Amino acid sequence: MNRRERKAMEKRLGLTKYKKTMPRSEKFEMIRQNIIEGRKKEEQLKEEIRIKNNAHEESIINKKISDRAMELMLKDGLDYYSANEKAKEEFGKKA
């Protein structure tokens, strides 16, 4: 919901008149609470974005490990588990 839609909705619900009749201390307290909630929401969104980015990076690393393990299996004739462990050691990633 953008700013115009929010203002129109507040007007329809009669919130603008209610806000005008509020004492200043209550108005400022409401504004302060909105700012606090906005900061919390922003932190949550940043955390979600960070988790998504980490998941993408981990999938790239896992793909590289898998490719390297396949090369070791074909080249050195290792079994799947030992090739996978050796590839993880090369990339420095712990299981």
Key features of this structure:
single chain, 95 residues, mainly alpha
Can you describe this structure?
Helix content is 87%, strand content 0%. It has 95 residues and is mostly helical. The protein has one domain. The longest helix has 53 residues, at 24-76. The relative contact order is 0.06.
Radius of gyration equals 27 Å
Q: Could you give the order of the helices and strands?
A: HHHH
Mean pLDDT: 86
- Please tally the helical runs, counting DSSP H or I stretches of 4 or more residues: 4
From the helix content, strand content and strand pairing, which structural class follows? Answer: mainly alpha
Share of helical residues = over 70%
Biggest pleated sheet: none
Q: What number of structural domains do the residues give?
A: 1
Topology, number of strands: 0
What is the approximate shape?
rod-shaped
Percentage of residues in strands: under 5%
Assembly state: single chain
List segments where confidence is low: pLDDT < 50 over at least 5 consecutive residues.
none
Instruction: Please report the distance between the alpha carbons of the first and last residues.
Output: 44 Å
